[in-house]
Specification:
Layout: H1 9-18, E1 22-27, E2 33-34, E3 49-54, E4 57-64, H2 73-76, E5 81-88, E6 93-99, H3 103-106, H4 109-114, E7 120-131, E8 139-149, H5 150-154
Parallel strand pairs: 6-8
Antiparallel strand pairs: 1-2, 1-3, 4-5, 4-7, 5-6, 7-8
Bound molecules: zinc ion.
Pfam families: OB_ChsH2_C
Protein name: ChsH2 C-terminal OB-fold domain-containing protein
Length: about 160
């Protein structure tokens, strides 16, 4: 792909998240999906990919509760959470913040994963307001893509 033809993929991705649309890039050669989007294909090395809207649903691959050093107060204010690898229904795997609901769900989550249980998750974007540059007063509003256990909603 020529440089002058490149799209601002990061902006398009975040604009999508804000609208509840989860955009990836699909390789026009092998069909692999890059998510979060990437202009080239990391599976076969092909240079052409096209936009594809994903379901925003997947299954949990792994899950860890944050330690003191990487616990984020702004996340804890929303709901109990951990960090997890999520395999989207369309195939790509990436790590996200995963809201996990009540402590009774978290207990045994890793054991259930090790036992091979499929634990469903869905996209849960959260609103953020952060400085445009660290330490400066000007702020920007954006949506951070997090996930949530399906069963956290049912509970
Ligand atoms: Zn490919």
């Amino acid at each position: 792909m020529l440089l002058e033809n490149m799209e601002p993929v990061v902006k398009k991705f975040y604009d999508g998240v804000a609208e509840g649309k989860y955009l990836g890039r699909k390789c026009t050669e092998c069909g692999a999906i890059e998510f979060p989007p990437h202009l080239g294909c990391n599976t076969c090395g092909h240079g052409e990919t096209e936009w594809v809207e994903l379901s925003g649903h997947g299954t949990l691959v792994s899950f860890v509760i944050p330690g003191i050093q990487n616990d984020k107060p702004y996340l804890k204010e929303i709901a109990p959470y951990g960090y997890g690898a999520v395999e989207l229904d369309e195939g790509p795997i990436y790590t996200f913040v995963v809201f996990c609901g009540k402590k009774k769900i978290v207990k045994g989550l890793q054991e259930r994963l090790h036992a091979g249980e499929k634990i469903g998750v869905h996209a849960k974007p959260i609103q953020r307001v952060t400085p445009v540059k660290p330490g400066e007063p000007e702020t920007i509003e954006w949506s951070e893509l997090c996930f949530e256990l399906d069963e956290a909603v049912e509970a």
